[in-house]
């Protein structure tokens, strides 16, 4: 395969436009186009940069097929490092359910990663870490998963500045059981707790409310002054009103 054909295949298999590749090499799109059409060839310094971008040797880049396996799909090469563009990518050859076991893709721009374990600006996987992440266990600025941790988190168990989930913990939390500065849910514990059933906090509003300032059908004020007798009465009231409450949830209040 000629150099110009090799360059075009490598660029496309790595998901780069001519303009994006030119930016990495500090040349124009037109220069890349001339290389790919065979009108000109890059000088040695650019060949070195190209080999770094694509993670291959110069011999392989210029068409020396004996240097390495020409038939190997460039997109499946396990390691791509480009210090110039601050990019690091690793994709394991082992797969599970059609996904690489590990895919790490970080650097400038919205780098995407998809794998059993995925790390990238946009990450999807069983375990995912990224600015935007989705997975069973998800960590990121925006995260969605069964266990989700992030500035904005949504999931079965969510923790973050703003969290939404069956169990939500955060500055603002919304869930079946929510704990936070502002907590909203069936059961809520926080500075401001608003619950349909039981609320506990500095300000508590619920069917049963326990707090320094409490509003509800059954109210206990001055939370710091409650006695064992008060907590026994609270427990009795909760069990009387909500006999099916999970005992570990009951324990949070009494």
Morphology: rod-shaped
> How many individual β-strands?
11
User: What pattern of helices and strands is seen along the backbone?
Assistant: HHHHHEEEEEEEEEEEHH
Stretches with pLDDT under 50, minimum 5 residues: 66-84
Count of helical regions? 7
The end-to-end distance, rounded to whole angstroms, is 75 Å
| Mean pLDDT level | 84
The helical percent reads: 25-40%
Rg is 28 Å
What percentage of amino acids are in beta strands?
Answer: over 45%
How many structural domains are formed by the residues?
3
Structural class: alpha/beta
Largest sheet: 9 strands, mixed
Overview features:
single chain; 254 residues; alpha/beta; 434 Repressor (Amino-terminal Domain); 3 domains; 9-stranded mixed beta sheet; two-stranded antiparallel ribbon; 7 helices; 11 strands; 25% helix
């Amino acid at each position: 395969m000629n150099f110009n054909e090799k360059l075009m295949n490598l660029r496309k298999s790595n998901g780069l436009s001519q303009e994006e590749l030119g930016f990495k090499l500090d040349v124009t799109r037109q220069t890349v186009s001339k290389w790919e059409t065979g009108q000109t060839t890059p000088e040695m310094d650019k060949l070195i940069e190209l080999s770094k971008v694509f993670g291959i040797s110069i011999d392989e880049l210029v068409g020396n097929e004996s240097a390495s396996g020409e038939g190997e799909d460039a997109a499946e090469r396990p390691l791509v490092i480009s210090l110039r563009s601050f990019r690091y990518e690793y994709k394991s050859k082992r797969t599970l359910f059609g996904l690489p076991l590990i895919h790490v893709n970080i650097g400038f721009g919205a780098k995407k990663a998809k794998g059993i374990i995925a790390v990238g600006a946009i990450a999807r996987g069983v375990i995912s870490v990224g600015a935007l992440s989705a997975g069973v266990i998800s960590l990121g600025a925006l995260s969605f998963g069964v266990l989700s941790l992030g500035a904005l988190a949504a999931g079965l168990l969510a923790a973050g500045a703003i969290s939404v989930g069956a169990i939500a913990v955060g500055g603002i939390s919304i869930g079946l059981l929510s704990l936070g500065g502002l907590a909203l849910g069936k059961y809520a514990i926080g500075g401001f707790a608003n619950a349909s059933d039981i609320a506990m906090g500095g300000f508590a509003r619920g069917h049963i409310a326990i707090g320094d300032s409490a509003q509800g059908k059954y109210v206990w004020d001055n939370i710091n002054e409650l006695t064992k007798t008060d907590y026994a009465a609270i427990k009795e009231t909760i069990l009387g009103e909500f006999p099916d409450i999970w005992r570990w949830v009951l324990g949070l209040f009494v």
